[in-house]
Amino acid sequence: MDLHFGDSRPTDDERAAVDALLGPPESSWEGADRTDADLRWARGGREARDRRDLLLPGLHALNDRIGWISEGALDYLCRRLTVPPAEAYGVATFYAMFSVRPRPATVLHICTDLACTAAGAAGLCDGAEAALGPGVHVERSPCLGLCERAPAALAVRAGDPVRTAVSAPATVEAAVLAATAPDSAPQEPPAATAVPQAGQEGQEGLILLKRVGVVDPSSLDDYRANGGCTALRRAFELGPAGVIREVTDSGLVGRGGAAFPTGRKWQATASQPDRPHYLVCNADESEPGTFKDRVIMEGDPYALVEAMTIAAYAIGAHRGLVYIRGEYPRAIHRIQHAVDQARARGLLGDDVLGQGFAFDIEIRRGAGAYICGEETALFNSIEGYRGEPRSKPPFPVEKGLFGKPTVENNVETLVNVLPILTMGAPAYAAIGTERSTGPKLFCVSGCVARPGVYELPFGATLGELLRLAGVRDGLRAVLLGGAAGGFVRPDELGIPLTFEGTREAGTTLGSGVVMAFDDTVPLPGLLLRIARFFREESCGQCVPCRVGTVRQEEALHRIVTRTGADAAGDIALLREVGRAMRDASICGLGQTAWNAVESAIDRLGAYE
Amino acid sequence: MTVTPLGIPRRLLEFTIDGQEVRVPECSTILDACRTAGKDVPTLCEGDTLRPKNACRVCVVEVEGSRTLVPACSRKAEPGMVVKTGTERVRHSRKLVLELLASSVDLSTTPRAAEWIKEYEAKPDRFGPDAARLDEEPRVDNDLYVRDYGKCILCYKCVDACGDQWQNSFAISVSGRGFDARIAVEHDAPLTDSACVYCGNCVEVCPTGALSFKSEFDMRAAGTWDESRHTETTTVCAYCGVGCNLTLHVQDNEIVKVTSPHDNPVTHGNLCIKGRFGYQHVQNRG
Questions:
Q1: Chain-chain contact of A548 with B93 (C-beta, under 8 angstroms)
Q2: If contacts are CB pairs under 8 Å, which of residues 177-206 in chain B contact chain A?
């Protein structure tokens, strides 16, 4: 590899931002001034290239300090990491939160996704833009995962250190305050406000949310006093094979949307002779309407640390990574704090709990790409490549992160391991239904009185959940599973919320999104927003998704005010495009990009 | 004499394609097997000298037990597999892929595209006159080759050839995302400011003519490009001792383009700037 760099030089700030992450450069090969010694030997090769996974953190460092990534800054980062500038440019332009063009230091991300649009995001954008002027860049953003407090805005002010402020529910004044004075903007309410069951009678009966709002999320002692670390001790008693057996017997399946049996995944990875094994926690929760993982990470962060330690112990991994979406500054902060505390107290490190097991957790931050929630795209993103899905096979259990056997689990999936070990697999499997065992978190938002994360055993009906959340009158449609899910009608509230129940009803549970819409929300507008979401989030790798999502949005635009025979031609076209996307796309994004639109046409009779 | 390495012997495995029993060596792809069996599977992003990227999805086939269609170019054949290449489902996806591509980029110089569009009854016009197209202006920033991204189907072959699979120059990458994704050098600069070494190995693998010799581009613009008048002569490059094979494409006694045989066991179709573009002295008859 013969790297070529342009003439652009980094500013002192840009150099300092990169050096703060990577340390000062050791030789002119890495961007320092040239000395005589540099002329006698060359640094580089595999050792230099092996740090490629620091490219994304490096881009974050620049974006955090300066607000955008200049030519000189990108070149300097590439020199430091021995990355070809063309590839780094490809990576930097992949993520929505980065800019390679100059922009103001403050960016105000205003969510314009489903729940927030229904709550008046359009007016918020216009008002904020008018009030802020050119000094702040207002970015219309996909779902920020704050649906229980719609409409939501996230202000990011670059500097040292970078400052963030969340305003939700946002008014124009509050959003402007967050953008202009992030330090003095009011604090976000505690995570427990997103859990309507918290502080209510029966919270101690909950399994996954029992500590949210009860413990201080920054205190490890509080966590231990409330049942923390008992599952980890039990894991060490059982041994790795015993843990996998318990998890398998519990019937736990992945909660990220794909519902793959967790025990099988762990077993398949644990039995791979290739080393090292990796554990990756997928906290890139970007499905519109989903915010359960954020609530867990913000309200009970040590639970995730403990659960990851158990998973790593079971599969023989000594390094774990949590990939948290960049739009979750508080979750990132809380998990970072929890990891640091756990390390300081011997719960992570070379000798976890004195059991001779070494494990540590690293946090990686996403930068605004829904596709990075796809498991193999997430590997590419961590490794410093564009977050494009890989083709499977080979599957991650065989060749995952850095080409090594890897278990990747969603946050909610992992924290389910704690009750499995403390209560035992049979007791856990007794919760829920025969084929969907355990408790499940549901993210309820939209036209309900008490939006938030609800924990219910599998098998509760959609109606029961909506009644709990206080659904308002005039219900027109419920979106299950988010943008990749499907709509159901108000007369289908008897659908049992289980994987098999929703499948039988011809819909999907997905990641547990339940978004209620009343008749004030125009359906064609919703569908257009979903189509725009997929068009913007398609990585562009395969033709059916890259062009199909564009054609889908165009057709929905044409029929936005049409019905009946006027819309029939375009609906037929949508069906054909949708079928090809579902059949021929590489990954789940393209395969599900037509689901919600199809269900709205077929079940809700949109455009009739 | 060219010696073709035979490699280690491989076991044969059996499966069926469209009801017909086929036997192929282990590690073959479904596409290899289809070609052995005489099935014509359309391909665009597949390259005989590159690892399959399976991005275009025009080669999809139906495999029994698979939820979605699978790309024939990258999926390895497995014993007992039941593959169908001509079902309505397969034809539907291939037709749509061709329609989606033809409605968004210029396929006029893509070999066989017109034939496949006819075969699969694709109608790219049905997305309407307002359907978004790439519509990029050709980038002429050097004397050797032209990048016409209005013809680019984003097959990644040029990126792979420039990067770790052949040239190791890493001068180009995919930038942006989704429909806005483009092949670009860093900061979208002209080629002359990039790491490009003008080996032209990206031009060699480009399946659509988005990358072409400047000579070909100019002649096409002038309307003088006529492949029926071309002769192809394979010879040995005289610049250095490696002895790469060159195929000279000659029209009216002028070299108009240089390629290299992909089956050459040493160079696999790759050349350097001298072999690829350094032919002007030959026609310097002054």
A1: no
A2: 177-181, 184-189, 193-195
Across the interface, which of A96, A554, A582 has its CB nearest the CB of B132? A554
CATH 3.30.230.10 fits A220-428, yes or no: no
Domain boundaries, chain A: 12-92, 106-185, 220-428, 431-518, 523-602
Q: Does domain B1-130 have CATH number 3.40.50.300?
A: no
Q: Centre a 10 Å sphere on the Cβ of residue A340 and count the other Cβ atoms it contains.
A: 12
Which residues in chain A are contacts of B153 at CB distance < 8 A? 543
> B126 vs chain A: nearest CA distance in angstroms?
9
Q: What is A431-518's CATH number? A: 3.10.20.600
CB distance from A88 to chain B under 8 Å?
A: yes
pLDDT at B127 over 70: yes
| Phi-psi label, residue A151: left if phi above 0, alpha if psi -120 to 50, beta otherwise | beta
Where in chain B are the domains? 1-130, 145-283
pLDDT tens for residues B41-62? 999 999 999 999 999 999 999 9
The confidence score (pLDDT) of residue B3 equals 64
Residue A38: pLDDT band (50, 70, 90) is: confident
Is B130 at the interface with chain A, CB within 8 A? yes
For domain B145-283, give the CATH number.
Answer: 2.20.25.90
Reported as a pLDDT band with limits 50, 70 and 90, residue B4 is: low
Give me the pLDDT at residue B2, please. Answer: 57
Q: In the CATH hierarchy, which top-level class contains the domain A106-185?
A: alpha beta
Indicate yes or no: CB of A87 within 8 angstroms of CB of B173. yes
pLDDT value at A541 more than 90: yes
Prediction ipTM score? 0.95
Q: Which of A188, A193, A197 is nearest to A470 (CA)?
A: A197
For B31-38, the CB contacts below 8 A with 24+ separation are: B31/B59, B31/B72, B31/B73, B32/B77, B33/B77, B33/B83, B34/B61, B34/B72, B34/B83, B34/B85
- CATH architecture of the region A523-602: Up-down Bundle (1.20)
Categorize the per-residue pLDDT at A223 as very low, low, confident or very high, splitting at 50, 70 and 90.
Answer: very high
| Nearest CB to A548 within list B68, B100, B168 | B100
Q: If contacts are CB pairs under 8 Å, which of residues 123-182 in chain A contact chain B?
A: none
How many whole angstroms separate alpha carbon A456 and alpha carbon B206?
A: 54
Burial of A190 (0-12, 13-18, 19+ CB in 10 A): middle
Our CA-based measurement puts residue B16 at a distance from the nearest CA of chain A, in whole angstroms, of 20
Give B153-180 pLDDT, tens digit per residue: 999 999 999 999 999 999 999 999 999 9
Q: What is the pLDDT of residue A89?
A: 98
Ramachandran category for residue A162: left, alpha or beta (phi over 0 → left; psi -120 to 50 → alpha): beta
B19: left (phi over 0), alpha (psi -120 to 50) or beta: left
* Mean predicted confidence (pLDDT) in A95-99: 97
